[in-house]
Design brief:
Elements: E1 40-47, E2 56-63, E3 69-78, H1 81-87, E4 104-111, E5 123-126, E6 129-131, H2 137-140, E7 151-152, E8 172-176, E9 181-182, H3 189-192, H4 198-208, E10 216-220, H5 224-235, E11 239-244, H6 250-256, E12 260-263, H7 267-271, E13 277-282, H8 290-294, E14 297-305, H9 318-321, E15 326-329, H10 335-348, E16 354-358, H11 362-370, E17 377-381
Parallel strand pairs: 10-11, 10-13, 11-12, 13-14, 14-15, 16-17
Antiparallel strand pairs: 1-2, 3-4, 3-8, 3-17, 4-5, 5-9, 6-7
Length: about 375
């Protein structure tokens, strides 16, 4: 997922509820006004208490379901690189204790009286968003990921219980019905979990820029994001070229759907594709040379960045202006598009390639993730927490 420095926000600096008490209006005051927070129940979880502390077992509060809420017993949670950034405060906005996790698959255990789309026992998903203002132009367009007041699954202000929102490294979660997603019954639920971030992060830009048959599309990087980019681009009918620095990933790239795999450190291989690609999806979060990829685009081609490098990357003007090329970015997708993506995956039997871990292996998984030692997404079996 792209750097959410402008997304995880409105978290009070003193780690308290943002709600300010006001003198009640006698004309509208009634007993319910006295109830400022919903009742809560305790839930086992794993959290970080400081940037350099390992994640460890803890107990967190979850609100009791309201009329429009869905209570979910979490069965699987994918491990996103954003989780590591957040736990270690590498984006400089983390409030502790921090519970990461926004690739959630679980079973509905209770619903509010106004819930219409789900019933107890349903398998459902929760991704990067758990709320938004629902009234702004972005929300009305189904683009909740751009809402100025969106609530992220972790790291935003919790408007119900105060403090910060706590993610999916936990036994359960309670989410408004509008932000819960249907999971196709034919998909492996564990391998579906990463679709809720890695999947929609790559699906959304490919759909937005209308990638399809007759186009030559480059995917840069074969990791959690990149491997999904390869699968989707191939499913959309494009000619797919994977770019990787790792010769050991050539066979895997072809297995996942790439028509051709280019070793990006080989100048001759890169030159052979100069000016030939319609679209490039760059899924690399490490420092790398963007200009080398911009030169691979045709006239009017577009490079879209979905990785989030820690430091700014230099972009030369001439590769852009001489061929009217574009350089863009993309976040995740809104709720309608995320459901569309899940339905598409159900129709085409697309899931992530995963390695299952126990909850108590999360710190080791973070270290392995830094070394790209995973093919291609860790998923936590949350039964190991119980």
């Amino acid at each position: 997922m792209a750097n959410p420095s402008t997304c995880w926000r409105k978290f009070p600096a003193n780690n308290t509820s943002p709600v300010v008490a006001q003198k009640p209006n006698p004309a509208t005051f009634h007993l319910n006004t006295l109830i400022t927070k919903p009742r809560a129940y305790s839930c086992k979880a794993y959290s970080a208490t400081a940037a350099k502390s390992p994640l460890a077992a803890t107990t967190i509060p979850r609100r009791e379901p309201g009329p429009s809420d869905v209570q979910i017993d979490i069965q699987y949670c994918g491990v996103c690189h954003s989780d590591l950034h957040f736990a270690r405060n590498e984006w400089n906005f983390t409030q502790y204790p921090a519970v990461p996790g926004h690739e959630i698959i679980g079973r509905v255990t209770a619903i509010g009286g106004a819930v219409k789309k789900f019933k107890v026992g349903d398998t459902v998903g929760v991704g990067c968003l758990v709320d938004s203002c629902r009234t702004c132009p972005d929300c009305r367009a189904g683009l909740e990921q751009f809402c100025p007041d969106m609530t992220m699954t972790y790291g935003s202000a919790d408007k119900h219980l105060g403090g910060g929102t706590l993610g999916g490294y936990a036994q359960g979660i309670v989410v408004a019905e509008e932000f819960v997603l249907r999971i196709p019954a034919n998909l492996n639920p564990a391998a579906t979990a990463p679709l809720l971030c890695a999947g929609i992060t790559t699906y959304s830009p490919l759909r937005h820029w209308k990638v399809g048959p007759g186009q030559k599309v480059g995917i840069v990087g074969l990791g959690g994001l990149g491997h999904m980019g390869v699968k989707f681009a191939r499913a959309f009918g494009a000619q797919v070229v994977l770019f990787t620095t790792s010769p050991g990933k050539v066979a895997d790239g072809r297995r996942l759907g790439a028509h051709e795999v280019v070793i990006s450190t080989d100048e001759a291989q890169m030159t052979a594709h100069a000016g030939s690609l319609d679209f490039i999806l760059d899924a690399v979060s490490a420092t790398h040379d963007l200009n080398a990829y911009l030169n691979l685009l045709k006239r009017d081609g577009n490079l879209v960045l979905v990785g989030a490098p820690e430091k700014p990357l230099p972009v030369s003007a001439f590769p852009l202006i001489m061929r009217r090329r574009s350089f863009s970015g993309s976040l995740i997708g809104g709720l309608p598009e995320t459901q569309e993506m899940l339905d598409f995956c159900g129709q085409h039997n697309i899931t992530s390639d995963i390695e299952m871990i126990r909850m108590d292996q999360i710190n080791e998984a973070y270290e392995r993730m830094l070394k790209s030692d995973v093919k291609y997404r860790f998923v936590i079996d949350m039964a190991s927490l119980k």
